[in-house]
Specification:
By secondary structure, the protein is mainly beta. It contains 1 helix and 5 strands. Helices cover about 5% and strands about 40% of the residues. Strand 3 and strand 4 form a beta hairpin. The two termini are about 15 Å apart. The mean pLDDT is about 85.
């Protein structure tokens, strides 16, 4: 990403999807586990793995995902 955009967004990989995902989107899934996604830098909540303090994940709401990276 260009420098100005990289200050505003982050990229991550979906590792899990909750049961309530897509409810506000008519229950039509538009992303799946393993997809690389773009989200706002300030979105979500960082959660440490209680069994491995070196591992952390960001919990996002589905509406916080702004794009799927393909190709």
């Amino acid at each position: 990403f260009p420098v100005t955009i990289s200050r505003l967004v982050d990229v991550g990989t979906i590792v899990s999807i909750g049961k309530t995902a897509w409810k506000d989107f008519g229950d039509e899934p538009w992303a799946e586990k393993g997809d690389k996604v773009v989200f706002a830098k300030n979105a979500g909540k960082i959660v440490e793995d209680p069994e491995d303090k070196d591992t952390a994940n960001i919990l996002l709401n589905d509406e916080d995902i702004v794009a799927i990276v393909r190709g």
